[in-house]
Amino acid sequence: MSFAAIYKNSIEQPQAFWDGEAKLIDWQQPYSHVLDYSKPPFTQWFVGGKTNLCHNAVDRWVATQGEKAALIAISTETGSEKVYSFTELQAEVSRTAAIMLALGVGKGDRVLIYMPMIAEAAFAMLACARIGAIHSVVFGGFAAHSLASRIEDAQPKLVVSADAGSRGGKAIPYKPLLDEAIALSAHKPGKVLLVNRNLAPMNLVDGRDVDYATLRAQHIDAQVPITWLESNEPSYILYTSGTTGKPKGVQRDVGGYAVALASSMQHIFCGNPGETYFATSDIGWVVGHSYIVYGPLIAGMATIMYEGLPTSPDAGIWWSIVEKYKVTRMFSAPTAVRVLRKQPPEFMQKYDLTSLKALYLAGEPLDETTSGWISDALKVPIIDNYWQTETGWPILSIAKGYEDMPTRLGSPGIPTPGFNVKLFDETTGEECGSNEKGVVMIEGPLPPGCMQTVYGDDARYVSTYWTVLNGKHLYSTFDWGIRDADGYYFILGRTDDVINVAGHRLGTREIEESISSHANVSEVAVVGVEDKLKGQVAVAFVILKNPDTANGVQARQALEKEIMGVVDHQLGAVARPSRVYFIAQLPKTRSGKLLRRSIQAICEGRDPGDMSSIEDPASLNQIKGALVS
Ligand code: AMP
């Protein structure tokens, strides 16, 4: 069957289509119906069916390929490398699950995981899945305030963490940030389970903090049975930035997610049991959930967890891993490729990369130069794919597992099965035709694997994402897009105040709130500005309460550093603006709304557009002046 026919079937007959795909995973109890869309936009997939993510990722493979590699944990930071077979992974996950049970964690309880890229992080995620606890992984690069807001929202019974991560050979202590976050949060987790890597000293809190190695030894022979879950019970929460300062907890189910991953692993990523998959992301992001931990394992593949920089000990490190473990499918982000492009080609050429069949890139727009360079260097298909934390798997790509369709430079491809993608004109509300720019929307029901709701806030889910037009429920991606005459989509940037730095999604409002907490800051605007390496960087414009403190270059520089330090401390270095400029006035409309897009345009050397609503046109000159000062 052609891809076009398969796609059509998935949209017109979603029940029949997904009933077929559901056979890719194990069900302990069959579902009574494939889809319940009786309360749109809420979608229930595989209603009444019982399954488990950990069973499908681990136990299921123990019988047929127990001795084969499952998890390959490599750290160039600590010089460690360990391969866990499926049997060994099952044993480790069982031990961690037993520890969690002993600490009082049960089905439906939340467990917050704040960990570096070490094997124990994957054990913790899979252990939660095994016992039906709901994990919420928080990216290790986030600092105390970001962490505190997530602790407060998820209300975890247990936090799993470590003494430190490591970056560029430098230990980055996690424990002090965690302690500060718990102090800031109104909710206090009962227990904190700590992996001690001996990278940084830890102060243990009596009665709360427990040592992972000690408890692991106590549960060394544990065999924790699988807790079977109804398909629509929650599996995890993953927080993502939006337009308000408060991150949203994207909640995912069990059965639909497992089916979506199994299906995408087969048809988009074309992975086979026994092969090795290497995604260079981090478990703190959605790619880490879907395509470092769950997806490859559900497909019976070995998955690589890598802690370290792409350029250390040298720029050949990723390619040496590809050679050593015969990686067949690799997943990365355009920024990482741009970093590697700056290095001499010998680093890639000296390794045997013949095992590699394709490189998948996602998270941010893939420019032609980057795509062309890596394609020439690797001589394998480069497959862009477009998706979001909310969808959990690609909305747009070239699903070569169905048909070997051509890719098109600059386009992440065409809608994947199940995603009824449409473009709408923001002002007229009309559907766009070919080559007309519109907002990328998806008509409900969303396919399996997508978010079920915002954790604890159904109303926020509906009001944030959904619009009803002519009786149809439409999910907004908040991205601009355009579709060519052949149906290929091109993504043109966000419609909201979310920016994308090196493939990481950040809310400008969160950064503004953090900067505002500096005692000398009166007003602030943060915008995303085009950057050759990272795609975008955050740039801040600040009005000071006491402008005299920024007189002179040295004073300005010191203040800029101080404000960057506030963001580092509260949100993490990932959110740090690349520049902080001091000005006397921000461009606003007469009703007081910040003209962010005009500020952004000026920063990028573009025309700021229609300025009829601006209160004081001179404020634009302030921005221009600051940039050249
Ligand atoms: P996140 O939820 O952090 O994965 O960020 C999702 C956002 O990243 C999307 O809404 C897009 O703005 C952007 N994005 C993801 N993948 C791509 C891609 N392949 N091309 C262009 N933009 C992308």
Q: How does CATH name the architecture of the largest domain?
A: 3-Layer(aba) Sandwich
Radius of gyration: 24 Å
Number of helices: 19
Principal-axes geometry comes out as globular
Contiguous uncertain segments of 5+ residues: none
Q: What is the quaternary state of this protein?
A: single chain
The residue fraction in helices comes out at 25-40%
Cα(first) to Cα(last) distance is 61 Å
Query: How many β-strand runs?
Result: 33
The CATH C-level class name of the largest domain: Alpha Beta
CATH topology of the largest domain: Rossmann fold
Question: What portion of residues belong to β-strands?
Answer: 25-35%
- List bound small molecules: adenosine monophosphate
Q: Could you say how many structural domains there are in total?
A: 2
Task: Describe the sheet with the most strands.
Answer: 7 strands, mixed
**CATH superfamily of the largest domain, please?**
ANL, N-terminal domain
Provide the spatial order of strands within the biggest beta sheet: 5-4-17-16-18-19-20
Structural class by secondary-structure content: alpha/beta
